[in-house]
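Suppose you are handed a protein chain with no further information: no name, no annotation, nothing but its sequence. What can you learn? This example shows the usual starting point.
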Amino acid sequence: MAITKEEFISELNKDLEWEYAAAVQYVQHAAMLTGPEYDSIGKELVIHSNEEMGHAVTVSTIICDLGGVPTVDVEKRVISEDSKAMLLGVLNNQPGAAKDIVVLNAGAALYAADVADSMQAGIQLAKAAIESGAAKAKLDALVALSARLAK
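A reasonable first move is to predict its three-dimensional structure. Written in structure tokens, the prediction is:
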């Protein structure tokens, strides 16, 4: 099915809204991290924000080249105000920047620990654990154990 140039520009503008939103979300998550143990994660989030803005520039240029006007609207994103809610969102398979960075970091850890043969394989294992509910089940088991030990 063919689409018109105007429809294509409209779809590109939707993508552009998501690029803006992703950049904002990465910045917000980086700002919410506190403590030296999170410095490397915060720096990684800022790098991803800059990459998203680079994508936005590319998409904007394509829109202009097609005779369109790039949007200035930002797609509304759910942004957590606390780490627990953000983590639970990830473990409940909520898409977004938080899940992306968790999958990336977990994949790297699985590769570094020789559980996966490659970084990509580690990422796939981490993604599968989240999507299947196995990662959430492990957290639930840890919470239950912690509650039992506290008695």
